[in-house]
């Protein structure tokens, strides 16, 4: 488990690195990681700003030929113009005894040891040391094999990368360091929220069902992260959108951890988590105040880094006590692979891959609408609908026909489905097949699938796993009706299509629960028929491990 999460944490950096140069020409403008509200009257500030810009431009042009870069400047890829702009920005504000006039979105800072913002860089490095030492001292000696331990270890690695790139960014603001700082920070916030949700799942879910929630949830977060990085790097670098998205996810993450602290109250270790969540929230409020730098050295952002450095050990103290006190709870992640060599098992494995691609392309399509993303979204969604109908139709045939007869029908049905899909894609792409007809065909196929789901749930009503299919089919019906209502967006943000996606996100675990147990039941029935003991098939399935457990 830990290795998979570690690999996932490494993979997510690929689009970030690929997008560095594409964004280089964009990020040289007035984009800043901490946009601040200027104090004082706007007219006075505008006059000061125009006078300051004129002063900086004149002095930069005059002093560039005589300026030399130090070794540290060369290592940090700082050019002469940037170095002089920062220097004369500071000198101008110092001569007029003001610290709230920004140039290129940044307050004046006193150059110290070659760093643009020395104390922000120092406290960022302090966060790196705080995470590493806290994990090494509190968590690493436990050497647990639990899911929670793996999450904490992965989060520690992400924290180290985040604070290392933050240190480099505050030493020297370039396109490369800014990209690394932004995207690693976003990854850190996403993983903090993911680990908080995962901790809730581990609290309530039986161990056999954990992976059915964790793996789709991880896929959702990875897709969101990749889509956001690709949008910011390749489509449009929108810092305001990035800031509000990070703020929303951060608030959700802190709320999730505060709820965990509330659930464990009054256990002593719950106070550690309460201090961590409260301190982190307070540090974020300090960041929002946007105070200019005192003595041209320490601003609100530097204090934010200082506060997070101080409160980080409390998080690892909670994790240590949580692992010790709850060691009786089974946190082991049982990877519920769809196993078997039957046609149903192979088709379900293929359908899972199709579902993953469908939602990836759907995410990209809703981020940026163009012909390529639209076609990929439509065609993969249609493929998923058709494959699910095909799989459950085949499962229905196995209920009423012998295996040999179904195998013959399976080959014919497979060819028919392939021809139908190819013709549909060809007609839409080349024959101007209109969207309304595509929507009607897709709705009809979903309707037939729902009827088959309800029929199978009724057929298997004596088996525990039938209720999973019943819940899934009912949820799909409700979400489909909401989608058909075509409600306009509330506050220009949330429409019926978004609600449809939101509901289906929670229905997927029930679908995979049914698939998992139904394949076990199907394997038992086929084995019983082969051995000539088909009369006791259902009892054999019910006696299998996990079949009688409540989710």
TrEMBL record:
<feature type="transmembrane region" description="Helical">
    <location>
        <begin position="441"/>
        <end position="457"/>
    </location>
</feature>
<keyword id="KW-0337">GPI-anchor biosynthesis</keyword>
<feature type="transmembrane region" description="Helical">
    <location>
        <begin position="412"/>
        <end position="429"/>
    </location>
</feature>
<comment type="similarity">
    <text>Belongs to the PGAP3 family.</text>
</comment>
<keyword id="KW-0472">Membrane</keyword>
<keyword id="KW-0732">Signal</keyword>
<dbReference type="GO" id="GO:0016788">
    <property type="term" value="F:hydrolase activity, acting on ester bonds"/>
</dbReference>
<feature type="transmembrane region" description="Helical">
    <location>
        <begin position="180"/>
        <end position="202"/>
    </location>
</feature>
<feature type="transmembrane region" description="Helical">
    <location>
        <begin position="379"/>
        <end position="400"/>
    </location>
</feature>
<feature type="compositionally biased region" description="Polar residues">
    <location>
        <begin position="39"/>
        <end position="49"/>
    </location>
</feature>
<dbReference type="GO" id="GO:0005789">
    <property type="term" value="C:endoplasmic reticulum membrane"/>
</dbReference>
<feature type="transmembrane region" description="Helical">
    <location>
        <begin position="469"/>
        <end position="492"/>
    </location>
</feature>
<feature type="transmembrane region" description="Helical">
    <location>
        <begin position="270"/>
        <end position="288"/>
    </location>
</feature>
<feature type="region of interest" description="Disordered">
    <location>
        <begin position="30"/>
        <end position="49"/>
    </location>
</feature>
<dbReference type="Pfam" id="PF04080">
    <property type="entry name" value="Per1"/>
</dbReference>
<feature type="region of interest" description="Disordered">
    <location>
        <begin position="530"/>
        <end position="551"/>
    </location>
</feature>
<dbReference type="GO" id="GO:0006506">
    <property type="term" value="P:GPI anchor biosynthetic process"/>
</dbReference>
<protein>
    <recommendedName>
        <fullName>Post-GPI attachment to proteins factor 3</fullName>
    </recommendedName>
</protein>
<feature type="signal peptide">
    <location>
        <begin position="1"/>
        <end position="24"/>
    </location>
</feature>
<keyword id="KW-0812">Transmembrane</keyword>
<dbReference type="InterPro" id="IPR007217">
    <property type="entry name" value="Per1-like"/>
</dbReference>
<feature type="transmembrane region" description="Helical">
    <location>
        <begin position="294"/>
        <end position="318"/>
    </location>
</feature>
<keyword id="KW-1133">Transmembrane helix</keyword>
<feature type="transmembrane region" description="Helical">
    <location>
        <begin position="240"/>
        <end position="258"/>
    </location>
</feature>
<feature type="transmembrane region" description="Helical">
    <location>
        <begin position="214"/>
        <end position="234"/>
    </location>
</feature>
<feature type="transmembrane region" description="Helical">
    <location>
        <begin position="498"/>
        <end position="515"/>
    </location>
</feature>
<feature type="compositionally biased region" description="Polar residues">
    <location>
        <begin position="530"/>
        <end position="539"/>
    </location>
</feature>
């Amino acid at each position: 488990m830990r290795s998979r999460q570690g690999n996932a944490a490494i993979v997510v950096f690929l689009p970030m690195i690929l997008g560095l140069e594409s964004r280089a020409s964009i990020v040289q403008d007035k984009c800043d990681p901490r946009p601040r509200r200027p104090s004082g009257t706007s007219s006075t500030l505008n006059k000061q700003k125009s006078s300051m810009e004129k002063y900086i431009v004149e002095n930069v042009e005059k002093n560039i030929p005589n300026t030399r870069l130090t070794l540290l400047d060369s290592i940090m890829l700082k050019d002469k113009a940037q170095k002089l702009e920062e220097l004369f920005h500071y000198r101008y504000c110092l001569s007029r005894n003001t610290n709230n006039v920004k140039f290129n979105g940044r307050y004046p800072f006193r150059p110290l040891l070659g760093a643009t913002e020395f104390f922000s860089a120092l406290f960022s490095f302090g966060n790196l040391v705080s995470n590493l030492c806290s994990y090494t001292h509190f968590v690493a000696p436990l050497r647990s094999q639990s899911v929670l331990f793996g999450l904490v270890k992965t989060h520690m690695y992400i924290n180290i990368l985040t604070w290392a790139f933050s240190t480099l960014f505050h030493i020297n603001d370039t396109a490369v360091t800014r990209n690394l700082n932004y995207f690693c920070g976003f990854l850190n916030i996403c993983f903090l929220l993911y680990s908080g949700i995962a901790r809730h799942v581990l609290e309530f879910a039986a161990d056999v069902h954990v992976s059915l929630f964790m793996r789709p949830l991880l896929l959702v977060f990875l897709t969101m992260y990749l889509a956001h990085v690709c949008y910011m790097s390749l489509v449009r670098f929108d810092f305001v959108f990035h800031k509000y998205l990070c703020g929303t996810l951060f608030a959700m993450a802190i709320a999730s951890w505060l709820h965990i602290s509330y659930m464990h109250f009054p256990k002593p270790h719950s106070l550690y988590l309460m201090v961590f969540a409260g301190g982190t929230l307070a540090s974020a409020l300090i960041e929002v105040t946007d105070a200019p730098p005192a003595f041209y050295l320490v601003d609100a952002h530097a204090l934010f880094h200082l506060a997070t450095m101080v409160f980080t050990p409390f998080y690892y103290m909670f994790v240590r006590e949580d692992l010790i006190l709850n060691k009786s709870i089974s946190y082991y992640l049982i990877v519920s692979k769809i196993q078997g060599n039957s046609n149903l098992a192979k088709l379900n494995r293929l359908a899972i891959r199709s579902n993953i691609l469908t939602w990836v392309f759907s995410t990209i399509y809703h981020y940026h609408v163009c012909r390529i993303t639209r076609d990929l979204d439509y065609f993969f969604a249609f493929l998923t609908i058709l494959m699910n109908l095909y799989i459950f139709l085949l499962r229905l045939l196995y209920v009423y026909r012998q295996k040999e007869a179904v195998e013959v029908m399976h080959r014919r049905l497979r060819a028919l489905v392939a021809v139908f899909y190819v013709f549909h894609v060809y007609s839409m792409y080349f024959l101007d097949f209109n969207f309304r007809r595509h929507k009607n065909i897709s709705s009809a196929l979903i309707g037939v699938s729902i009827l088959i789901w309800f029929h199978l749930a009724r057929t298997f009503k004596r088996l525990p796993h039938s209720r999973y299919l019943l819940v899934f089919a009912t949820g799909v019906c409700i979400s489909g009706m909401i989608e058909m209502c075509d409600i306009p967006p509330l506050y220009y943000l949330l429409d019926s299509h978004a609600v449809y996606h939101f509901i289906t996100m929670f229905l997927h675990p029930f679908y995979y629960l049914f698939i998992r147990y139904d394949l076990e039941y199907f394997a038992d029935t086929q084995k019983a028929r082969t051995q000539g003991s088909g009369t006791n098939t259902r009892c054999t399935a019910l006696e299998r491990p996990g079949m009688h457990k409540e989710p």
